[in-house]
Amino acid sequence: MAKKKEQAQLDFEGQRPGEEVLFVFRRHIIAMRKGFYLLLIPLVVTAIPPLIWQDNLELFLLPLGGFILGLILFFYHFVLWYFTIYLVTNQRIRQVTQKGVFGKDVVELRLSKIQNISYNIPGFNGEILGYGTIVIQTFVGDLVIRYVEHPEKTYNKLQDAVSNAIELQGDNEEVTE
User: Fold this and answer.
1) pTM of the entire structure?
2) Complete domains list, the chain, with CATH
3) At residue 46, what are phi and psi to the nearest 5 degrees?
């Protein structure tokens, strides 16, 4: 006996009545590479003095301090990456970008207003690691989403969502006439 998977309805602040979340995506982990560098650089720099002056035992605590500093810097970049999300509903795309630890920036784009969607994979690294850039074009301007994980899959889902929204809008216009 086959069981159907029930998807839990995802709710978010600012959700409209009848609006359903189709999918949520975030940027690839490669977008957080600066955080990884900031984790390693203090550790490596503070590990040099104990290697030079090995007779001074207090210097062996220095790499621990560098590691803690690196963790703090990494955590900041992790928060920026983790809380930057893209919600695609049956009506719109909502980009929530984390700005600092406490700030955020929200951009919304109606699916029926999208003119074109394209994606690009930036060479060897993008192909091997599975990331790319998606460009969503409207009359007002472009929404460029860099470092998208599996851009071809996300592109196809976005195309389907836009097609469904345009069909739904066409059906609604016929009913009101």
Assistant:
1) 0.80
2) 21-33+79-176 (2.30.29.30)
3) -80, -10
